[in-house]
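Materials and Methods. Structural model of Alpha/beta hydrolase domain-containing protein. The 461-residue sequence of Alpha/beta hydrolase domain-containing protein from Amycolatopsis melonis was retrieved and submitted for structure prediction as follows.
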Amino acid sequence: MRRTLLVLLTVLLPVFAVPAAAEAAEPTVTAVPANAGRGWPVSGAQGVLDLAARGYVEEEYLLSGRADTYEQAGLWTDDGRWATRVASTGNPYTTRLVVVRPRDAARFSGTVVVEWLNVSFGVDIPVDFSQSYEHFLREGDIYVGLTTQKAGADKLKSLDPARYGAVNLSGDALSYDIFSQAAQAVRANPQLLGGRTPTVVLGTGHSQSALRLTTYANAIQPLRNVYDGLMIHGRAALAAPIGEGVIGPLSARIRTDLGVPVFVLQSETDVVASASVRQDTARVRTWEVAGTAHADQYGLDLYNAANARDRSINDGAPTTCDKPVNSMTFRYAENAAFRHLDRWARGGAAPPTAPPIAMLFNLVVLRDGDQNALGGIRLPDFAVPVATYSPNNSGGNVPGACMLLGTTTPLSPQRIRQLYPDHATYVAKFTAAADRAVQAGYLLPPDRDEAVARAQAAPVP
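The predicted structure was written out as tokens:
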């Protein structure tokens, strides 16, 4: 267990606020011609999702400006009330934005979600888009994927130098101000949003990006105050460094005096590394989703398709593991979380609380007779199981990936018949569990309908 925790942390890789320097000039945005270079955005949706059928378009822009870097001021304690000062100013940068928006601007909901793209595997990965794109598209939200770190920028240039020759990030110390300037650009440039302006701008990030968003929430949001809410997905207890260091504070709760809400959304893989910083406060909500993995088959299907097109990891080969990858429906909880965060950021009610995943000494997840976790949010596919859903896997052709992808192990035919003597019993139990999840606020009605339709069509028993 200790070795698993160490590997996970490796991959996941105010007191009062010290006044910042004067606010930088607004960054500029420049449209990237659709046919530039190879003709598509790296890590984008083209050829992977049929956005046009859903009334959406994908566009790409360069974002250029001058960014500040920051440094720690005084002692940073685990309550997250961190004082920060500007370390340097005027650092030039150019990065890129991938914008997915309704073709008909009248459909725009007013909500923009800006994702700090994940670079744990050396290339931009839009994790939160891969989980919740269906929700964004049916809501009329606009999604913006931001290349925020040097590894992602360098990979863009190497994969498509004709398209991304101007992209340049000198280091990750710029990432925090670039993330702020992206929100500033979204608010100041209606052309990014089909001519509209946003009502709410939400920031999100997963895994390694979640560690950086933890630092952002505690150290930068109080200074810049450009996001209306933050989604921190798949974090560990530690936070990212504010400068170019290898590691940041080892224990970091989200500060409780922020003026905007923060949603911490965790899979079962994440809880061993984050149980020590669990929070539910007036401005911080934590959900832990039982049976889910840090990454899963649903997201992997999109990553594999984009990777086959871009050839960015393992020469485009699909990621494989020793065992079938976790197929639990984490996306349903993430969709509900985004709906709640949006409402919360608009001044509405706080999201419902949720029970934590049951653990022994915050180190070992407690399990039932089928080896599924106890406690946590229990989506209908988990509450009425046909498999054991585990948080880690092994082996594989991409080092480090499978440990985060989890496993799905079907229950035996005998166990299935013991649980569900006939198909009608299975569907009735599944439907009741789905309705309970909707009532509790953990499942949205459209996802409930999709889930029940799947159960009705499933050959169970």
